[in-house]
Amino acid sequence: MTLHDTIHRVTQRVIEKSRDSRARYLDLIAREADNQPDRSQVSCSNLAHAYAGALEDQAALKAHRGPNIGIVTSYNDMLSAHQPYGRYPERLKIYAREVGATAQVAGATPAMCDGVTQGETGMELSLFSRDVIALSTGVALSHAMYDGALMLGICDKIVPGLVIGALRFGHLPAIFVPSGPMPSGISNKEKVRVRQLYAEGKASRAELLESELGSYHSPGTCTFYGTANSNQMMMEMMGLHIPGAAFIQPGTQLRQALDREAVHRVAAIGRSGNDYRPLGQCVDEKAIVNAAIGLLATGGSTNHAIHIPAMARAAGIEFDWTDLAELSSAVPLVANVYPNGAGDVNHFHDAGGMGFVIGTLLEEGLCHRDVLTVGTGDLSAYAQEPGLEGDALTWRAVGESGDETMLRPARDPFQPDGGMKLVTGNLGRACFKSSAVARDRWTVEAPCRVFDTQHAVAEAFKAGELDRDVVVVVRFQGPRANGMPELHKLTPPLGVLQDRGYHVALVTDGRMSGASGKVPATIHCTPEALGGGPLARLRDGDMVRLCAETGELSTSADLASREPAPDPRDADGMGRELFAMFRMQADSAEKGGSAMLALGGM
């Protein structure tokens, strides 16, 4: 199938505007590959330090019998998705020995949980944890001891951070190794019902906690289609997983077989073999466009409007919201996973999952087939599903959708576009996830009520001050103001107002999250309020119009005649003062909201 004209045009634009920066990046990784010494030439004292703890593999390491694989892990057992990683290193080392390789834990990264920090002060460290993860990955791989890498991470900022960090060592092959989602708990509809009852004061805290524990109940990734699971989708679309690895549950025989294959494969694609596939070559312009296409086709997390540009920059590629919006106009929505639909990622996988999504996109010329993957072929290998025949790992055709309320072919989609709109006007540029919002709510025009914190919104809701048509503006939530926290706690009260029949919308320079939906939300607004952005000049009662149909975000107020509101920040406590440099140097949300990439000239 011929590639869709819009996808071809956007890809060529990305290639052209990235020409110089991509060339510099490729030159960097070529030099790094040439400069990395063969371990046999490294000082014996240096090697002794590296080999001293590897008792079972010392003989193989001393003899340089095969590739040495660095494991970068984001294990902790506070984060359910990462709890299974605790036992991974010992298994991965066994799998490495099976093919004459060795493996060592090169280092660890932090892994905070946005679900735990939602609505709390610690959430203000969340976005910048991505930079810390990238830096930690760089430290882990800086020892020049490794011929490839296995990246253990799943959740929100963790996978993008691992990608960014690993790309600075893009001369090495790297495979991303997920651990899979937890089994399904209570229905998402029931979870939302109890949350809204609690917001209205009709359910107790004990009832709410019991409901939440019914949803988040065991090791594994949260089952809604938020940022964590969107990450796994993107790794498939970019060809950085073993095909079909994204949504196989922890502790299963198939999960272990896929983990084993990841080790065997990374050992096979190093520079010393005849199938060299360095990460920096795999993550090219087409792979970045594929990641965006997957996001749009599946209605994935709005957080990736920030993460995709940041990952692209780390590979010398320029990708912005204009590119994302233009792709959205051509890419149909083929998946309907909660919060867009009723079923979770387990239902999504059972209906055909990523194999079906990639297959139907390829059939209609809606993504790039010719990308260099970590597998044995191009992206068509990812249009299959994994299984076992005895103990042997196999792949088979997915066939038709197993549930057309969950997955539909690209020729007959849920909606003709990807549902990620760019809205612009005298209030700035922002993102609007229309795939999660009923079409009759895509346009809202109402007086605004301006807040500087999400807690103030909750107080106004409880006091009945928002019982009317209203555009709720929450400002000073951008990267430089307070680290751009997610404002997901706003969803229940705004959802209640909407259910009462009011026309309600949110405008913010903060984030909402992969779980955002139902209420029209214009997010990531840039320029941010701090520094005199337009949101800082809004006042209560100003008429604000947002429209996903026409791409408008505007006010009739005369903003130029006003002074911006004063900075309300309180940036101390909960370790936030440690991140002052990150806040001061961060670039805009559209560029990825990163201090590290901005300072590094990427």
From TrEMBL:
Residues annotated as binding [4Fe-4S] cluster: 155, 222
Signal peptide residues on this chain, from the entry's feature table: none
EC number from the UniProt entry: 4.2.1.12
Pathway the protein acts in: Carbohydrate metabolism; Entner-Doudoroff pathway
Compositionally biased residues, Basic and acidic residues: 560-573
Molecular function via GO: phosphogluconate dehydratase activity
Keyword entries, A-Z: 4Fe-4S, Carbohydrate metabolism, Gluconate utilization, Iron, Iron-sulfur, Lyase, Metal-binding
Domain called Dihydroxy-acid/6-phosphogluconate dehydratase C-terminal: residue spans: 406-592
Sequence similarity: Belongs to the IlvD/Edd family.
Role description: Catalyzes the dehydration of 6-phospho-D-gluconate to 2-dehydro-3-deoxy-6-phospho-D-gluconate.
The protein's name: Phosphogluconate dehydratase
